[in-house]
Task: structure prediction
Amino acid sequence: MNIIIYGSQYGTAKQYSKELAGQLNYELRSYDEVKDLDAYDNIIYIGSLYAGGILGMKKTFRKIRDIKNKNFIIATVGLGDPSEKSSTEAIRRGLKRQLPENIFKRAHIFHLRGGVDYSRMSFVHKTMMGMLYKKVVSMPEEKRSADAKAMIETYNKKVSYVDLSKLAPIVSTAGSFSA
Ligand SMILES: Cc1cc2nc3c(=O)[nH]c(=O)nc-3n(C[C@H](O)[C@H](O)[C@H](O)COP(=O)(O)O)c2cc1C
Result:
């Protein structure tokens, strides 16, 4: 059995997940609907990044008792540009901390780009972004990371970098798993 689980607050990770579930013909569930994962052979987790953490991921992978004979794909969805090495290296360090070692070693990892819409953001998230913005704009330009630049460029705006064609490598990796 095959499943895609998503952790999404505002819908971009869900958008990728729905498209992928359609292409692969996998079951689709939000992380907070998932109870038992032991029956699944192929598990894809698509989660959005919040302050370096992947929404719902830790909680979800804790539900797996036996990883033997299972395949894992983990895709993160964030504002940072996945073609920037500094951005993806930071995400991977976070993943390593948040996952059991045996799953981190086995998982196929991908990075997708989401978006932001400040008009739909919760008060708490807006406040967090406001604090982060103040911090990064006060830095000298040459000291700003790629993620910080992306944050400044999109601050208080509605921007979507969602590109469903970026799912192709995930489709092909999942295609190599036995059904
Ligand atoms: C409070 C907050 C923290 C965020 N932290 C990160 C981050 O650490 N790295 C990143 O790439 N994007 C970060 N983002 C951007 C989100 O990951 C991005 O908006 C994503 O598309 C949200 O996915 P969702 O629509 O599925 O919830 C953050 C956004 C908010 C509001």
Notes: The chain has two domains: 2-114+161-175, 116-158. Residues 8-14, 48-52, 77-80, 114-116, 121, 125, 128-129, 147 surround flavin mononucleotide (CB under 6 Å). Residues 116-158 form one domain.
